[in-house]
Design the sequence.
């Protein structure tokens, strides 16, 4: 089993009750994280769809929801950190004996998997937005080239009035 930042040496001051309480706190925090991360995953997927559809107004609105979820996740972190600190240095055999330990390690793995999935969706969104930016720049360059060409045609086909008076005088 994986320890939580274990230094390798058993911590003599941790009682079974302290370990159990820390694991229960960690479990509750991880479960709350999973709820928030699932909501964040849904928002990230919606943002990817909006990016693909070039629906930037809705994308921005979903960004606010995402920010709220992220702030909620950050609010949970101190409790998780406290629980991890209490579990550091606990003998792995003691942890294995605790009923919540296996569940906590499973929850930690699920949290990591969800974070990886969200990051993959975000990468796809970023690629879509980057592609849209390239397309926008290409269209802008095309319009600018068209403007230059049109201005050149204008100079050739419809000369300035000053040039027309030269032709009238000579011919």
Sequence:
């Amino acid at each position: 089993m994986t320890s939580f930042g274990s230094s390798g040496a058993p911590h003599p001051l941790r009682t079974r009750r302290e370990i159990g309480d820390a694991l229960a706190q960690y479990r509750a925090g991880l479960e709350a994280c999973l709820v928030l991360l699932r909501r964040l995953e849904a928002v990230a997927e919606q943002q990817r769809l909006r990016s693909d559809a070039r629906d930037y107004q809705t994308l921005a609105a979903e960004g606010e929801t995402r920010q709220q979820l992220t702030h909620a996740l950050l609010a949970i972190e101190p409790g998780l950190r406290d629980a991890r600190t209490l579990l550091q240095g606990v003998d792995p055999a003691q942890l294995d004996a605790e009923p919540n330990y296996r569940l906590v390690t499973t929850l930690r793995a699920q949290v990591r998997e969800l974070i990886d999935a969200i990051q993959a969706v975000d990468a796809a969104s970023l690629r879509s937005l980057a592609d849209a930016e390239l397309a926008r720049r290409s269209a802008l360059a095309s319009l600018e080239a068209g403007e230059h060409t049109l201005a050149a045609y204008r100079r050739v086909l419809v000369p300035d009035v000053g040039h027309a008076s030269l032709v009238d005088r000579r011919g």
Observations:
- The helical segments are 16-53, 56-87, 92-97, 99-157, 161-170.
